[in-house]
Amino acid sequence: MSDDFAPAEPIEEATEEEITETEPAFEPFYSSLDQWVTDWLLPNYSRPLRDVSQFRWDPQWWRYSEVVMRLEALWASWEKMRLEGGPGIVTFFRDYLDPMMRVILDPQGPFHAYDPNKTDPDGERDMPEPLPHSPLTVPDLFRLD
């Protein structure tokens, strides 16, 4: 084989100090998930919520760990992709926000136990039960080493 694609000189890797010096520190636009949800997501993403057979949203979304994890992932994605401008935001909506919100708002999704017609928006909740789990019968079945 030919060495036509071999570099003429060894490539030096950048040190951590050089990388830090050339890239400015990332500063998020919103300081918390709650702020992003309240100030960006809710004003910009609307669905009809009267018919619970189509969509469900609980104003106390922060009580649901699955919803918090999904929204944190969306917020982090939005913070990075907003810096890319138009194409980044289009990609964010198409590949991240719309599919994730379909899961979050699905009547069988994380809010399935919440019924806005029967629950005080600011009151206590009957939280959904976690999925059942049985202990492993084979020790170390999923070890990585």
UniProtKB/TrEMBL annotation:
<protein>
    <recommendedName>
        <fullName>DUF4913 domain-containing protein</fullName>
    </recommendedName>
</protein>
<dbReference type="Pfam" id="PF16259">
    <property type="entry name" value="DUF4913"/>
</dbReference>
<dbReference type="InterPro" id="IPR032584">
    <property type="entry name" value="DUF4913"/>
</dbReference>
<feature type="compositionally biased region" description="Acidic residues">
    <location>
        <begin position="10"/>
        <end position="21"/>
    </location>
</feature>
<feature type="compositionally biased region" description="Basic and acidic residues">
    <location>
        <begin position="115"/>
        <end position="128"/>
    </location>
</feature>
<feature type="region of interest" description="Disordered">
    <location>
        <begin position="1"/>
        <end position="22"/>
    </location>
</feature>
<feature type="region of interest" description="Disordered">
    <location>
        <begin position="112"/>
        <end position="145"/>
    </location>
</feature>
